[in-house]
Design brief:
Blueprint (H helix, E strand, L loop, with lengths): L18 H12 L2 H5 L3 E6 L2 E7 L13 H20 L3 E12 L7 E11 L3 E12 L2 E16 L2
Antiparallel strand pairs: 1-2, 2-4, 3-6, 4-5, 5-6
């Protein structure tokens, strides 16, 4: 879905995140054990969007040597969830209620990049999406698309 098809009142704000909020988001990201074990990193954030990258390693592959489908799904889920958190934090956060992913091509490359964006920012639910790209020799290839619904919860 393009941003042009989303009513202006529902589009995420543009611009940069406040420094304190960016720090809180990165601290939350860094508390996720699987992502830290896999060496995933937040590579970009703005209000309503988040990009996460993951280097290739034996820890994230399946038997053919491609990025594992579960890892592709996890990266998409996190990119969408943190895109939502850029609009929800510091007072609220989100938890995934559900997501649907279509893996379009094998995850062949040296890096995975997931780019999440908020489609609808509601009071109790957020709808987000993410595109996942496998990068090989500097070229990105779309390997998955995901849409998710997230619960809005109070931040502890």
């Amino acid at each position: 879905m393009s941003m042009d098809s989303i009513p202006a009142a529902e589009q995420p704000a543009s611009g940069e995140l406040e420094a304190q909020l960016a720090l809180q988001l990165l601290e939350a990201f860094n508390r996720q054990g699987a992502l830290m074990a896999w060496q995933a990193k937040v590579t970009a954030m703005a209000p309503g969007s988040c990009e996460v990258s993951l280097p290739y390693s034996d820890r994230v592959t399946q038997q053919h040597g491609y990025f594992h489908g579960g890892v592709i799904g996890t990266l998409a889920d996190v990119a969408g969830g943190f895109a939502a958190n850029t609009l929800l934090m510091p007072h609220s956060e989100c938890l995934t209620a559900e997501y649907k992913i279509n893996i379009l091509a094998p995850g062949i490359g040296d890096t995975l990049i997931a780019r999440g964006r908020v489609i609808k920012n509601g009071k109790s639910l957020v709808v987000a999406s993410a595109d996942v790209f496998a990068v090989q020799d500097g070229k990105e290839k779309l390997c998955a698309v995901m849409q998710q619904t997230l619960f809005v919860i109070s931040r502890k």
